[in-house]
Structures are given as C-alpha cells and as structure tokens.
Write a structure and sequence with these properties.
By secondary structure, this protein is an alpha/beta fold. It has one domain: Rossmann fold (3-Layer(aba) Sandwich), CATH 3.40.50.1450. The protein is built from 5 helices and 5 strands; from the N terminus they run E-H-E-H-E-E-H-H-E-H. Helix 1 links the parallel strand 1 and strand 2. Helix 1 packs across helix 5. The N and C termini lie far apart (about 35 Å).
Length: about 170
Amino acid sequence: MKRITVLGTGNILMGDEGVGVHAIRALRESYSFPEQISLIDGGSMGLDLLPFIENTAKLLIIDAVSSGSPPGTIQVYEGQVIPAVLSRKMSVHQIGVKDLLFALKFMDRAPEEICLIGVEPENMDILLGLSGKMKEVFPALLAAILARLARWGVDLAESRPHPCAT
C-alpha cells in the first residue's frame, strides 16, 4: 500500500474553522491505522507541513470550506479544483494550504491523488468547539473520510466508539 496522508487543518479557537483538526482527533481516538497512513493535525501551519506531506502518494485534506451552501453541507473536491476552492479564503491557514499544494507541484512531489473534504461552517467566531450544526453533521463527515479511504483501498475497523466533537 502506498503512503496516504490525512491532513486536518483549521484553527480550533474559531469554532467550525477547526473542524479538520477535530476530525483528525476523532479518527485517532476511534480507529487503528496501518503505518502507511499518516494522520496530521495541521492546524494553521501552512508551508511548515511540507516535510510531512512531500512523500505521500495520496493526500486527503479535511477543512471548513465556504462554498455558499447551507451550514453543515459536506462537499468533496478532487484534483485541480482544490486550489480554486481554497482561493475563496475564510482564514489565513487556507493561504498556507494553497501554497503547500503549489510547492509540492513545483518540487515535482505532488501526490498522485489529492482530495479535499470540506464542510460549510455555521460559526467561525471565537469559540472553543464546534457549532450545533457542525456537531450534527460530524458523524457524516467521518463517514465521508472513511469512504474516501476505502476507495483508496484502506478498510478500517472501529476500535472505539466515535467521540462527540466538542
């Protein structure tokens, strides 16, 4: 199995903006992953993530994405569409993720496949934790992540019940 990286980004101090980080934490708490799968809490690190991403075959990014859809809408973006989606910035970290993807391509180290699972935020005010709507769709977000991993040949058995995102 080729190396797969699951990257959760966002600022957990700004409500739903931190959904990617919360998803990584929930996955770590609920599943056992083979050593070829890296789960990265990327926070808002941007280009500092380059050494952790550059040798991966497939990259799955989890993030809050403003698409104009109703709050809680989960969207899956693939390939060349992702930089355009991230150009509608909601926060500074998305500039860093877009730059990270550009740097990987420039260095000829871009993953074979890149997928972004984005969730439309409800609340991005200073708030430790997720909004009610984001908590409601959080199990569906985890299911979308697991479905993408299964599509990439990774089948996981739940080792513990899903934690409730806080």
